[in-house]
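thread: overnight batch results

M.L. [08:02]
morning all. the overnight job finished for the chain we discussed friday. pasting input first so we're all looking at the same thing
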Amino acid sequence: MPCGCRRPDFASAFSRVACGRNPCLCPATPPAAASTSGGQARPRLTQELSLSVLSSLLHPLALLGRAAIGAVFHLGRYAILSARAFGYAFVPPFRVRGYLKQMESVGVDSLFVVILTGAFTGGVFTLQIIYGFRMFSAESMVGPTVAMAMTRELGPVLTALMVTGRVGSSMAAELAAMKVTEQIDALAVMAAEPVKYLVSPRIIAGIIMLPLLTAVSDAIGVVGGYAVAVVKGLDPGQFAGRIQDIVRMDDVLDGLVKSAFFGFILTSVGCYAGFYCKGGAEGVGRATTGAVVVSYVAILVGDFILTAVMF
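M.L. [08:03]
and the structure it wrote out:
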């Protein structure tokens, strides 16, 4: 260095300039240059602080944007898979045995739990409304209320939820296990379209069998409500007769249409979760749990939308 003094570091020089003292600089560096250097450091430090504050403020927005992009990505891939499944369902060759097998799994194997759910739902609902209607001497409206509630809401929704817990989770776990063991990739290598062979039969079976299961649930629910009403002292003829007077066929058909949509939702979501599973055995568990949770939420949201449109 030209002089024997020690050149201070940037922080020391900046602090001395800020407090008004002249820092120890060599004669080669004039005081004007030192003040200029300190003046340039101040905007730089302010700019760094501003960027840090701005970054902390924008971080939640970045997380929200990342979540939105992920949701749009999954929704688009789900729509593409569903469209391909529908398209392949009408393209030969038609594997009738595969469709019948899935219809048996969705419909016949779920019949017992649907009957049990419908019977106790109708009975409990009848117990609740009997006490309320007796306060207004309106016991004659118990039968129509039970029938309308079962056909419009309770039958389709509870049937879909029960079938989701039994069939939707099974579909997700089965396809996820095939995915992680590369069986789906093996089908593609053998020139067998995986979507046509695995997804299409399951979705079509859900759309066909859910309305049939819902019809069974509606009938069993009304019968269960009738039995409870008779036990509680209501007139059997009045219970059944008022149902014929008030409940229309449109109420039943609207509930069956809703159940067809629910069948599509639970099967397509289960197939999607399993078809795109990754992560080994842990991924299979995540796919199964995610399929059930998403199906439950989608069924309830779809029920609200369809009810607002139909009724």
